[in-house]
């Protein structure tokens, strides 16, 4: 039986309960969708309703259900308990199924497995076709046969790896392959196409053979290797192999790849050919940091490279943190500075960019180091937004999660001895990323330099403590271990120059609580509003897209949508709003046409060309929208600033806003706003 979407269920329920019927205008208001969408839902429901002996009839402009309507009662009851996939998640699963498949799949089978209508699958396939065409992969539909994807096998595997990498939580994926902890996403993502146990076997085989002899730049690259090796095994079992040539680069890894093959079960390695070995060897070479060089392309200037090296070294020394470890960061920064020098005639205007301004406040110490070291190395004078954009690169690198594998923890206990050592021992065992553990007691806590520690644990409550800490028992129980793992999964090292290191007393406690409640109320209101919406734009007209966007925002939030549209367009013309190296842009304005603060995310049916903040042209497929009244309170300014800065705080955050679901964005914002709960001054 085809299951209904929540919208279809709501539509049928409204028609069934309407008695005389509902007009299209009634349905538009009730469903909060356009007339076109209502017609599309009617078409999608037609065959299903016919099978139930029911029809949607139109009498004098009023729509109602006729026929054996009582047969739908059980369907409505079943649908209440159903948990619908988000559109983005469903599209990802559909892409995974087709990219993994070895033969054509009938559309009805896809509809049944994803519990949606065939019409929904057809629309998803149209979007997938557009997305894959840029990789020379093509969605082929054959009547009576089904749908399949054809194109270069290597690209097919790389695209599939990219989709999975975006969908999986890296932290929990590694916990699964390393320790067998359950990952609920597997069944949903693969729908049994790949047995999750294969990932564990692949990881164990790589750990024995490949991983000890290569130097990977991040956990993400290790996950990429696990994914691409697993996908290669699956595709080889289906008789699908890439064409791979021998090169001096992949030959050096070939013997190790064959050692890896030997660790696999016979059923997994049976169809692994020389081409498969060469393909995997090439993927290893691409990710082996020891084989990568800092050198830029031939057309990039060597003198500039030397200047950037010195600039990065100077910032590292001044700020006290090593920014010289990541060649990818160096290349991105060099490319950006090269563009600055080449386009010195077309500079960013010296106007405040709210998102970058909030980031500057958060990382003031790092920003000061950049401002100090830039003129020591470059003659080009920058305006404030250009300094802030360089800060964005450094801040992303500073919060890069691959550096969070060497953490320091401080344990605070009553006397600093005895059971604290048991706690320290268990902490190291359960959380191997914590390499250094120190123990202290209350009498000397005020003398401890707290900025030296990433994680602070205490066996007793610490009222007024200036840093976030975790309250645990001396034995560190299993539920406490899980809580710490979840905390570290979302942890980002702060700019410790902003952290106070002395205890404070509570003053004006009632006032503080009232302020905290107001902060939480506003935060929750904005998070609840935050959704990923689809914009059915028909072309590259940004103004029309904004009008379409604002049309779905309730009147109590915006009282003059035409005025707000013009304000947004003026802001866009003032300075570029695209985030470099993404498909994401930031739309924001404060205007008298706005009644209440609002934040949302909008995904375009057709990407629009815009300028990025680095003045490079980019394709924008999604944008965030933040609007506020002309006059905002300090509290509203603070909360909006936290939301705004979270978008560009690090690459992981940016990726969530660029590709994530409503739920993922809401969870990220909730974590961010909780971490920024006002502290006593």
UniProtKB/TrEMBL annotation:
GO biological process terms, semicolon-separated: phosphoenolpyruvate-dependent sugar phosphotransferase system
A Pfam cross-reference name: PTS_EIIA_2
Domain PTS EIIB type-2 span(s) in chain numbering: 407-496
Alphabetized UniProt keyword annotations: Transcription, Transcription regulation, Transferase
Single GO molecular function: protein-N(PI)-phosphohistidine-sugar phosphotransferase activity
InterPro entries hit by this protein: BglG_antiterminators, Mga_HTH, PTrfase/Anion_transptr, PTS_EIIA_type-2_dom, PTS_EIIB-like_sf, PTS_EIIB_2, WH-like_DNA-bd_sf
Protein name as it appears in the record: Transcriptional regulator
